[in-house]
Design a protein that fits this description.
Blueprint lengths: L7 H10 L2 E2 L2 E2 L2 H11 L5 H20 L18 H12 L2
Antiparallel strand pairs: 1-2
Helix pairs in contact: 1-3, 3-4
């Protein structure tokens, strides 16, 4: 998986929170609850990126239900569609 410069910690946060919630993308309320619990204050753009990564993860997990498609899990990181993640990060930096 390519190195994500200066945003690597956001991917770590995503895995700490959990990439999805009950087969849905993370909500901003869930992100707020995590922040309150962990004593971390995300900037709005950081919360937007984590939410977008959650949406992308869920999208990829639905695609992975097709035969011979890998599941988007940490142990299969080389098989995650990194282009989608990169595009999401680039789009959000334009905000």
């Amino acid at each position: 998986m390519p190195t994500i410069e200066r945003g690597e910690y956001l991917v770590s946060y995503l895995w700490d929170i959990g990439p999805t919630s009950d087969s849905s993308p993370l909500t901003f309320s869930e992100l707020r609850a995590w922040q309150d619990t962990m004593g971390i204050e995300l900037k709005p753009w950081e919360a937007q990126i984590i939410r977008r990564l959650s949406c992308d993860y869920l999208s990829e997990s639905h695609k992975a239900t097709k035969r011979n498609s890998p599941a988007p899990a940490p142990e299969f990181a080389p098989n995650i569609n990194t282009k989608t993640v990169q595009q999401s990060l680039r789009a959000l930096t334009q905000l």
